[in-house]
Target: Nose resistant to fluoxetine protein 6-like
Amino acid sequence: MIPLREMKGTPVIAGNTVALVLVFGFFHVSDSLPVKDDFNRTEWPYIPPFHYDVIDPFAEYRRLKMLKAFLVGTKEEPSYSSRLKSSMDQIYSLSYNVSLLCRQHFKIISEDTGHDLFNKFFTSNGKQANEMIFNNKLFMGNFEQCEKIDTNVNGSEPVRGRYTHFSLSLRVHPKIDSTLSILWYICLPRSCTVEDSRSVAKTFQNHFQLDSVRSEMFEQWDSAEDNWYHLAVTLLVCLAVVCFIATAVDSIGVLRRKVNTICNSHDLPRSKQAIACHILMSFSLRRSVHKTFEADDSEECISCLHGLRVISLIWVFAGSVFYIVPTINNPQRRYFIITSRITNIVYSPFPVDTFFFISGCLVAYNFLNRMKNLRNLERYQMIKYYTHRFLRLTPLFTLVMVIYTGITPYLEHGPFVRQDSNRHYECRLHWWRNLFYISNLFDWSSLCMPWSWYLQADMQFYALAPLFIVPVFYGFRRVGVSVIIMMVLCHILSTAVILKSYEDWHLQSHDQYLTHIYIKPWTRVGPYAFGLLLGYLLSDWGKDIKISKLQVRTGWLIATLSFMLMLSVRDNVLAEMFGVQPFLKLRKISSYTVLKSSLWSVTLGWIVFACFSGNGGVVNSFLTWEAWAPLSKLSYGAYLCHALVILYINHNLYYEEQFTYTYAVQKTIFVTVYANFLSLVLTLMIDTPIRNLVRPFTRLSPTHRYQKVHSESQEDTLLTSYVTQEEFPSFETQVETKP
Model:
């Protein structure tokens, strides 16, 4: 590689110049982007009713006034709520076109007087919430009471209850261009099938004069016929048994000494006994714990990335708590919370960009450091480059996917699981997309484990990284820089073209935005490209970089201003999204969407560069805190498990929750603790063992020139740096994660 030490001041000057260009272009690039100029409603192809209504505060006031008259009533006309309430006691006596047993149980319920069966069913049904005027359109009943109903009447088949969710849609007023949707939970006889519930919904539509009614009855999974359940249980049991045997052998003194003698044999080729010993001891919990929590003292480690990774992961958890919310009884309160300035920091896409940046930085830095003293790259080294990555990511990812698909359906029992009852089917149909790391190329609605889209994109970027690192390894620096420029231009132009194609910054619906912009690799590659460039520069320069105090202060000033600018613009974008401040033009929203990742990457680049070169000050002291390192090693599993924890909480609730700041903070802490706990268990059982198994494959051939000039201890130091500080940042969505 061509040394760049004679250009020590260049990176700071170049970085500052790029940052200034991006900041300046943030408000001027919109002139060249093909986007809308104003908020002309008639030109918008579609806007969700909630967003549409609140754009104009006066229209929102009129809508709420009409809604109040509709629900509460006036002197001239009784309220719809009272009419609906007076009809609720008739639901068990209506004439339904249902199966024979279901019809008989309806009749028994309506005519029952001796066993108080009617009261049990009726009191389990959802009632109108007092706060309905504040957009709480949930008629929630008593799920637990309904599910416990089990009564024999006159020797007939027992009458049992099953909670069923009905979505009622009706037009409130001719002058309001939207419909009112009500979620109504009703306790039906368990003998009624899904088809029966649809027939009941049709009867409701006619009886209550509704625009439409949709029913959703959750059917309990049958584990006896569930192959995914058997697969998940088998894998977990086998892993537990192997870990127990390996730990027992490694803990007994006599056996441990014998095993160490066999495993540490340096005879080449190694015997089958030594290989089997190495495989078994890789699953020893005793060694896995030591490996997971050992300190990384390598001087070549970029220690500040541990802190950035963990902080970004917690940031993802907080965003997921706001995004993956359970059914709540104060949605209007949540509306005000998510449009506040504090939430703008939490509910943002920057943690995902941080993970992509970290990943690109470590890929380039670690690869070039390991190959620094080589003259040529051989074919087997590039094969190991790809196989090592696949073997490191896939086992834990596959295990979590199997648990999510085969185990979690049996751990969730609550009224709200019905609203997401089809999520497991996507994994049963499209699991292969995850294993080939291509699921983010499909629609958001068809993703298995939607928060895993980040892993798919990161693997795709990893596959493309040699387009940059191989040319710079051979000294073709201009070729490498050209690749970086092409990646960044791909990121910017593809986002702008997609925005123009749909002629609306949020692409008509949230799912379309996620499908066409948020998860696609060509719209997210920018931060990864900046990370690759920084990793190359850090590998080439080392830590002995001398820059003036003026350059340091200028860099921190620009980084701080960039951060504040992005938060300010982000605040306006959220306000525009929810109609609070309709003064920001769509051109600036599109400019923000296009340039935010690049500006954020430049900011991160300065932080990492300053900390690496000894100019980080208190920021570097905080990011290199020793507690971050073990948590950083658990971040991969924690990200994969965090959505499982959130969904488990949401789907085991019996009642709706109050969405407040306190609720969000408490839930974020809870998710962080339990996600890291699950990550620790899975890391010790499979992630660290697999890391130990694939580690020999990362070593260079003993006959290679690298072995002749470097001792075994020096090689281990480099490999330790490479293994303990992995390239992948283990995100979001998410959640970046999540992501």
